[in-house]
Amino acid sequence: PIWSKNAVCERLRFKYSANAVGKHLPSVAYRFSKGPWRMMWIRYGYDPRKDKASAQYQIVMYKPPRNASEDLNARKSTLQTAGLLHQRQTRPDIRFERVPLKATTMYQICDIATGNPSVADILGRNGEQFNAECHDQAGWYPKAVKDKIKKYMNETLRERLRKPLDTAPPPPPSTAGNAEDDEEEADDSGPGASTAAGANAVMSSGAANEKEEEEEEEEEESEMESDDEDITNPNDIHQMLRSLRNS
Q1: Where do Acidic residues bias regions lie (predicted)?
Q2: Less crowded by CB within 10 Å, the N or C end of the chain?
Q3: How far does CA 184 lie from the centroid of its chain?
């Protein structure tokens, strides 16, 4: 019931830019401007604040350690030389399977766990130890859970930066049939909840640096957008969005 724009683009096999997809998302989903699901697209009628199962869809704003900046800049330069930088920017990594090149990158916890079994283990060890109520900033997970995830991400980043860069282009998006897509969409569905406030729903005020993180994420999205792109016959997007709405 909760998707990032990049995840929707990936499900559509990157046929359209993030900007083109974003034009159609408000027809079936709304966003919070703050809080643990901010910038995510949430199916109308579903309120993650009332459903503990939505914890897995919360976001992690990841900032690489400052002492990694030199290595990250070198990695970015190597990608540019190999002609892969633009491709990496237009096909973002949503599962933390590659070295993040941005100052701040937004991930969903469920996606990180899919790409990194160690994160799934962290969540498994947490079990049913959710917050009694949905916290304005931490959401359903105790802060300690996010801290453990970020610690793992920092350790993994250091390991990846020590390895030579694989400059081979990533494989093309999967062309699996609709049946497989339907199964994946079913896995992403969650129990229903009371209707959320709507497209302009806003969580309570956040931490002092939250606005800065939002602006960095919006800037990241804008770099992938194509202002002159439009979809004359957006059947693919509409079909995908209907499945999100009904999940």
Answers
A1: 179-188, 211-231
A2: C
A3: 16
